Structure formats: C-alpha cells, structure tokens
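REVIEWER CHECKLIST
Item 1: Sequence provided? yes
Item 2: Single chain? yes
Item 3: Sequence as submitted:
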Amino acid sequence: MVKRLLSLLLSCFSWYLISLPSPPYLREFTQCLREKLPSELVYEQSSSSFTDVLGSSNKNPRFFTNATVRPLCIVTPNDARHVQAAMLCGRRHGVRLRVRSGGHDYEGLSYRSARPDDVFGVLDLANLRSVSVNHSESTAWVDSGATLGELYYAIAKNNSWIAFPAGECPTVGVGGQFSGGGIGMLMRKYGLSIDNVLDAKMVNANGDLLDRVGMGEDLFWAIRGGGSESFGVVLSWKIQLVQVPPTVTVFSIGKTLDQGAIDILTRWQVVGPSLPDDLTIRVKVQGQEALFLAMYLGTCSSLVATMGRRFPEHSMTSADCRSITWLQSTALSFTTLANIGTPEDVLLNRTGNMSFSFKGKSDYVRRPISKAAWKDIFSWYKMSGSGYIMLEPHGGFMDNVPADATPHPHRDSVLYIVQYLVFWQGDGGTAAPTAWLDDFYGFMGQHVSTNPRRAYVNFRDLDIGQNVVVDDMSTFDGGEVWGERYFMSNYRRLVTVKAAVDPTDYFRNEQSIPPLL
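Item 4: Structure as written out by the authors:
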C-alpha cells in the first residue's frame, strides 16, 4: 500500500513539474519553430503524437521511461531548409539541438540527456532517407536518415556485384554509423565506412549548407569518424561503392569447450587478422561456446581450401557452407547468421525490438590473450546475468591506413575489437542490471590495450567519462578523459576543428567534442 501511494505521489509530482510555466525563451523558441516550419513537422511535448515520435526509432527501453530526460520538442525535417530554420530558432533562443538518424546510440544521446537540467530539442532525420545510385560511377548519395538496410537494398537489389562496407545491424542509421567509423564484415577488404566517403552535405553551426569544398578538408576529416554531431548536421553522404562476387559464402560453426573452443579461439587471435582480406571470421562468445561467423568473397570450394591451409584446427568442411548473394548476407542475423526473413522484410524494416534493454562496452586487443586466460574468461559465462562478447578481426585493409587518416585511429596495431553486450527484459527499473558487465569489463583490463584503454565511439559508453561544462562550455580536460580513449592523439585535432567551426559549443552532449579555446 505504501509503495502504491508513493508511486502515485511521484507520478503527480512529475506531472506538476512538467506542467510548470515555461521560461520565456522556451516559449519563444517553440513559437519560432511554429512560424518557420510546417506544423506537421514539429512535435511538442504537449502533442498527442510526441511520445510515439520519440519512441519511433528508440532501440533501447532503458532510455524510454518516466525518468528519461526528454527533448522539449522533436523536429522532423523534410529538407535542408527545415534543418536550417530549426537551427536558426535554436541559436536565436538558446536551445541546443541533438541529431538522431537511426536511434542506435548506445547511450541514447541522440534523443535524451543524462543530465536532468538539460533543455534541448531533437532533429529527427527519419524523413531524410533517400538513396541515389550512380551506376556508371559506382557511387551513391545516401541521406543520414536512411538505415543501413535501406542503403544495402537500394544499391544491391538489382546488381549482385555491388556492395558497401558498413555494419551488420540493418536498423542502424547511416548518419550515426558514418559519424563514428563503421566497422563490419567488409572492413578487412575495403576498410571502414568512412574510408569510402567521398563527399558530404551538412548544415554547420551558423546555419550554412556546405559540401566538401565549402566545409574544407579539416571539417570533412572530422565528421568521418569524429562524431559529426559535434560539428553540425550532416544531411547526406556521397559514398564509393565496392565490388563483390555475385555469390559469397558464409558459415556459422559453434565449438563448445569439449570440442576444443579454447584452443581454436586462442589460435583464431593470430589467424583471423592475417587471413586473406576476402575472408572475415567473427567470434561470438556466450555461455560455454564460441560461435565462429564467417563471410568469404568467393566459392565454397575455395573457402574450404583456404581454411584447410590457414586454419586447419577449425575443421571446417563444405557441409558448413552456404552460398548466397552479398545482399542476402546482410539480412542474416547479426549474432548467428541464421535466416530471419527475406532481404525486403529484414532490410526495409526500420522498427527495432523494444523488448530488451541493453548496455554495451568495447575494447581493442593488440596482443593475443593466452589459453590460460581464456579458461578464466569462460568461467565468467557460468555466472548469473552474463551477456556475450563479439570479437571482430582487423588486419587486411585496416593495416594499410595511417592512424591519423581519419579520426578513427584503431588500425594497424589492432588484432581485433571486443564488443561487450548484456541484455535484460524491459527497462530495468531504477537500476540497470549491469553488475556482471561492469565486473567482467574490469577483469578484462589486464588483457586489452592500455594507456589509454581504447574504445570505439560507435559503441558509446558514458562510464568512461563525460564532458565537464564550465561557463556554458565543455572543457578540453574533461573531454580528454574519454576522447583519447576513442580517438587517441586525433582528439587534439578534433578539438581544434571544433573551435574553428563551433566555438560557442552549440552542438553539445555528454560526449561531444569540446572546443579548444
């Protein structure tokens, strides 16, 4: 009874809080939006559709609760003019805007704040999702609001020879993927997504619409892997498409501890990054099994021969092969490579699964982890609340890119990246059940990169640090705590670019690049 009464009081108190009169500058901001934008593109908190629009691309129930710090309003632009108008209103009336493309930010920073006193609006780019393919040039322009699935389907539905290197989850937004780098099954052959970006169109902090020539090479460098949301609103990207054979080969082979999983996994650490660049083998470790997930740009017979020469410990045979098109491979399950639907059904579905909340972390491994250590690692997967890790090999193309070619520095010195994930039902209540993940991540510190302990910005993790704001400006030192882990020495160039293009720190969130002033 007491709990029910307390819940009712808190609910009434929350209603009272959000019903207080708005400060004049907030009313002026929303009035400005009403005057400059079609009414159907603006959703204020009082709108009956506000909650539905906010949740339309939310992929994590953890950030869709009554305690979530939500935006003042959501603007859903149809073109660059709408973005410019929203920014003009925001700058004029002191309301910052956050940018959402697919809603996959691991900490939800594209549509919520981790700070209770933040007042902000959201530019939701879901209406900006066209893909225009130039077949003669093997290029395409893709809007930031398109998902990877929509991009893959548009470029390859009528041409099985064409592909693009990006991630394995089809509901991820193009804008967020390119903003942080873009790892995936083709990166050993063709690099990251950002290594294949030729041009971009963006609205900067002054409201100017710029292409690569207009923004200059420093800003073009920064938005490709340095978190473009720190510098402006990237509307679209011109990308270089790549060649793949009309048929690729995939396999998914699980090895339990009794089947030698530890020996094979220990060996994979050396073999995986050194295989021919047309073969990528990821590994999912969960429970007492290592699941090897591969894509090969070639035939089954050739793959079997390559595995026999380079990785005989795995005992892969032709019976393990599945021959499909590259487009079909992008519609397989990320975690198992199982068939989950047709390319049309999977790739064109923008709706995420809101049944499970999740928390992620990342690491980079530069030296093989010992067999004895893997035995200790597997013991963690006997514990209650355990999640899984996904290991994605580097090498190949990645070894030939200088660390400062883009803001993403994790290149030739890396064997593989580790993604940690833990899931739970619903939003988790007042405290997310992440104890296992936190403890396991702490244990893994002895086996991964150090000084600094590296991380991948697209697997965003607020636990590694947040900005410190002084006099309404994010500080260099506060950003350096997390910035060097994502960007290494490239952090210093990023803060210099930020100072040149957004010196007032208008585009700001808990892990945005601060200006070096």
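Item 5: Key structural point noted by reviewer: The CA atoms of residues 80 and 504 lie 22 Å apart.
Item 6: Recommendation: ____
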